[in-house]
Amino acid sequence: MKERKKRLLLVEDEAITALAETRFLESIGYEVLHVFSGEAALEAVTPEIDLILMDIDLGPGISGTETASRILKKRELPILFLSSHSSQEMVEKVRNITRYGYVVKNSGYFVLQASIEMAFTLFEACEQQRQTLRYFRRAEEVSAMGHWRMSRDSEHFLFSEGAVAICGLPAPLFSVAKFRLLVLPEDRILREQALERAIRDKTTYKAEYRIARPDDGRVIWIRSIADVEASDEIVFGVLRDITDLKKLENPTLVQPYGVSEKNHYYNLFDESSLPMFMLDPEDGSIVDANRAASEFYGWPMAILCQMKMADINILPFASAKAEMRSAVKLRKNFFFFCHRKADGSTCEVVVITNPVRIEGRSYLHSIIMDLYSPQSEELEKARRYWYLAEFSGAVVWTIDLEHETLSYISPSVEKVFGFTVESAKKLGIRGLLTPDSYDALMADSKREGPQIGLYQHYRSDGSIADIEITAIAVTGKACRCCEIVGVSRDISARLAAEREIEKLNDTNKQLFQEVQYRIRYTLLVIADLLKIEEQALTVETAYEALEDARKRVSSLSVFYDKLFTFPDYRVVPVRPYIEELLRYFSSQSKKRHIEIEGYVEDLTMNIQQLFLVSILIQELVNSAGKHAFHNMETGHISVTIIKLASSSLEVVVSDDGVDTDEETHYPSAIGLGIITEVANMLSATVESRTSSGTTYKIRIPLSSL
């Protein structure tokens, strides 16, 4: 039976590049389906596609990377990325999507072929690995077991799906320290000693212990067996839930592990609906916790009472300890913290802490309130205003117009401008602003409503800062303006950045023009070299092929030459460029008097679109010049570009050459291939007719432009 050819999906928006790549891939035995966009690629992915060659930059629409991500969510298959860029940034962009390869377009066809073969080999290996993993998961389900492993120098366990389900873990990668907290205190030391002994003596690790599952708080018995691998770096083990077995052996061993029976300090502590802790002020250990705390944080009470506040508070330990000292010394008892819960999420809380003495020992009694609960609504408002004043980078002030003094200025004036509140008030707004800025502010404040303006403000070191002031005049009794309330922001850095950006834009524009100039110069050199080779050829077909190539290169130089004259290179007018292109064509037909004229409406396109349309015109005009005027000294070629009422663009290329066999009017095989690819890229239709010459009519939907 004949083996089916492997089918490739080529996603490439450059028509010429796609044509060349398709021909090469077909020549080495692949079937190729070509599409121009990510949207089309999503529709084209069928079970018959074996590999995708994906251009990263696909122009308008979804990008190549986004297209690849969507495809891989539906089906696993190799995707090889193509790009004109070889930067590390571009490689990193695709690294997390798929790792079957990245090919720079100008690397050569040998590299492309080798990369495709390597991608197929890698995919087959990965498919075998995925199949093995499926068997592994099925084996875990049947045996009701889970697997785990850890590196000796790692801080995490890696659990299989079966182990995650047994232990109630939130994710396969789980901290060693956190797992230690799940183990009940009386089993913890024996488990750790057994593991350390197995690693040290290179013997089999066996342990039975209880854990409190983090998802539901249920306590279960675990039996775990592990070996240290030969490398002495990896510990690989299995575990299973033996709770039912333990019940049969001794029912008393699996009673729920609840709160200790010791007396609580107050009934209020135990019954309060607010989370509460009793803390050791020395190291932040949680001495006791109420039921509300267990429900709020998600850990069983037995686990909470083995933890420290450092396990919950994301603040660095040194900072948290400093806050505890403040509470012990009664300097501060009101705190805003971000706390960690058992499921890994975080929450913002208000903590009210006071020192207490019970049975001769000192503790910290902490009450926790969710910052977004109704009880702490007022505290949240206070927190917002405090953060605004401390961290907005702005200075709030009020001017008493009657006494011409600063009646208020926020402490942030010291951070922003270097003045203390006292020194700023002493200077007043007149002394803080430059004279011209002070006069301008007073004049602006007389206008109705809020005023925003740019002014200059002194710093404490004598330098001057550019600032933005938002101010409003407040009217008092008798409709008199009694004060001005304002906010000042130092925008010196922003203005400097804007100036730097403007400078960089000018530099980039110059670099862009230099690049275009060098491209144009290179194209002209290539055209001259092709001209030299033409003159040395004696075989007519070879001469014509080289002449066609030279004309294509020369017309590209016209494109880059005209690019310099457009103020905005992203969207350019069509008429000046097409007229220049037609003048170039006329200059190439000096042996015969072929008149080339054009009519182009006032239209604009982006450079990519205009480039594609010019390729169509070039191929059709070149074909007419070669085939339409046999034995004729004169002739006429017309090019028309107009916008139709049917929301489409019409490009018409016609000649008044002789009516011969229709085949003679068609472009060459290469030219016809180029026309077909470009037309497909533009979603265009191409019609031709032969009557008193040849006319090609191309209609391009405006939606594709």
TrEMBL record:
Entry's EC annotation: 2.7.13.3
Catalytic activity: ATP + protein L-histidine = ADP + protein N-phospho-L-histidine
Molecular function GO terms recorded: ATP binding; protein histidine kinase activity
The keyword Signal is annotated on this UniProt entry: no
A Gene Ontology BP annotation from the UniProt entry: phosphorelay signal transduction system
Residue(s) carrying 4-aspartylphosphate: 55
Coiled coil: 494-552
Domain PAC: 205-254
Record's keyword terms, sorted: ATP-binding, Coiled coil, Kinase, Nucleotide-binding, Phosphoprotein, Transferase, Virulence
SMART domains membership: PAS, REC
Major enzyme class: transferase
UniProt xrefs under Pfam families: HisKA_2, PAS_3, PAS_8, PAS_9, Response_reg
Domain Response regulatory: 7-120
The keyword Nucleotide-binding appears for this protein: yes
PANTHER family per UniProt: ETHYLENE RESPONSE SENSOR PROTEIN (PTHR41523:SF8), TWO-COMPONENT SYSTEM SENSOR PROTEIN (PTHR41523)
Name of the protein: histidine kinase
Organism of provenance: Sediminispirochaeta smaragdinae (strain DSM 11293 / JCM 15392 / SEBR 4228) (Spirochaeta smaragdinae)
Lineage of the species this protein comes from: Bacteria, Pseudomonadati, Spirochaetota, Spirochaetia, Spirochaetales
